[in-house]
Amino acid sequence: MPLSIAIVGLPNVGKSTLFNALLKEQQALAANYPFATIEPNVGVVPVPDSRLEKLAPIVHTSTLKPATVEFVDIAGLVAGASKGEGLGNQFLSYIRETSAICHVIRAFEDSDIIREGSTDPINDLRVIRLELQLADLATLQKQAQPKGAADREFKERWQVIQAFTQTIEQEQPIFRTIKENSTGLPTEFLEKVAKDLNLLTAKDELFVVNVSEGQLQKGAAQLTQDYAKELSVMPDQIIVMCNKIESELASLSDEDRQLYLHELGLEQSGLDRLITAAYKTLKLQSFLTAGELEVRAWTIRQGTTAQKAAGVIHTDFEKRFISAKIVSFDDFLHYQGWKGVKESGKIRAEGRDYIMQEGDVVEFMIGK
Predict the structure, then answer these.
(1) Is the pTM value of this prediction over 0.85?
(2) Interval 138-167 mean pLDDT
(3) DSSP letter string over 196-207?
(4) Among 59, 132, 55, which residue's Cα sits nearest to residue 291?
(5) Can you name the residues that pair with 86 across neighbouring β-strands?
(6) How far apart, in whole angstroms, are the C-alpha atoms of residue 221 and residue 46?
(7) Is-contact 44 81, C-beta < 8 A?
(8) Whole-Å CA distances, 127 to 9, 49, 118, 136
(9) Rounded CA gap, 201 and 16, in Å?
């Protein structure tokens, strides 16, 4: 599924360091000067999921395939990017192709690393958001007003465009207009117009606040609350981490990583928290398949039907869908596999319109 998150921020705030840590290898160029990253680097990152390790011995397999999220490392934006400054037009086009935005914000002090426009978290975020808003305004102003006997949908589309334009002129992101929706039109229609126009500020947001190791000792939970208040966003959108530490953690074995995290007083790495948050931000969930060949988590959007979910495995499965055998993860674990859940009557036969739930263990019945 083409679902991805753009890593965005001013130059030298730690974007490429974060991306390198995500991939556990130096695939992006993390250099101490602006525009070290020219072409976007793309990485597919596994979503942490302990359920797979619990299912594997039950079905006698050693092959585990977790769900994934795609991250795109985009070169640093600068003031004036919406007008082409600093290769801005090119970089903005890369952001348009992604599903959500992860703002990387610099909160650490280091005299050895050039700031290149970065001053403090609030102003840095304001600069980036303003450039995204100006780019959206330019897109909206290019849209043609309906004339004469235009059909109803065209007129409603223009009503949405006017609402979006007013939002941008008030220096607000379009996603707020969609969520608050006072147009009288279905929210799904607003989302469709925003998607058709590839509007940048309609995308969901995450925030990585890049702090120093010394700052992190204050505690990630407290820092999260502090920065959520400072940036006026929800705490579950904020991931406070030290990108330098995350890069070091990424090079360690699992055992050494846990020891290092314990020394730092952390239960989970910042990367794991980011990946999990990204999965939720994109409104995704997983269903599981378990057999001797592999245990696998498959990515679907929340609200997906069983028939559509079958199509994620193979497009022909959606066309030839008959039914789905559904078991909850807890029941599958408790009764030790397909034989046990069958004998205990825990398998449900669901039709094509069944709405998939997080963690469903599934076997699809497919016709010829």
Answers:
(1) no
(2) 89
(3) HTT-GGGSEEEE
(4) 59
(5) none
(6) 24
(7) no
(8) 9, 36, 9, 14
(9) 22
Name residues whose C-beta falls within 8 Å of residue 217's C-beta, 6 or more positions apart in sequence. 264, 265
Nearest to 77 by CA among 51, 43, 108, 105: 105
Q: Tell me if 118 sits within 8 A of 17, measured CB to CB.
A: no
Question: How far apart (Å, rounded) are the C-alpha atoms in residues 277 and 283?
Answer: 10
User: Using CA atoms, how far apart are residues 223 and 218, in angstroms rounded to an integer?
Assistant: 7
CA atoms of 299 and 355, how far apart (whole Å): 14
For residues 226 and 364, what is the distance between their CA atoms, to the nearest angstrom? Answer: 47
* DSSP string covering 87-138: GHHHHHHHHHTSSEEEEEEE----TTS--TT---HHHHHHHHHHHHHHHHHH
Reported residue count of the chain is 368
Q: Which two tokens stand for residue 337?
A: 């596999």
For 161-283, strand residue ranges (E) read 204-210, 238-241
Q: Which residue has the tokens 């037009």?
A: 89
Instruction: Return the SS3 of 23.
Output: helix
Which band of pLDDT confidence, cut at 50, 70 and 90, is reported for residue 38?
Answer: very low
- Which pLDDT score is estimated for 29? 36
Q: Are 136 and 201 in contact (CB under 8 A)?
A: yes
How far apart, in Å, do the first and last CA atoms of the chain sit? 25
What amino acid occupies position 27? Q
For tokens 């780019």, the residue is 135
Burial of 257 per CB tally in 10 Å (0-12, 13-18, 19+): middle
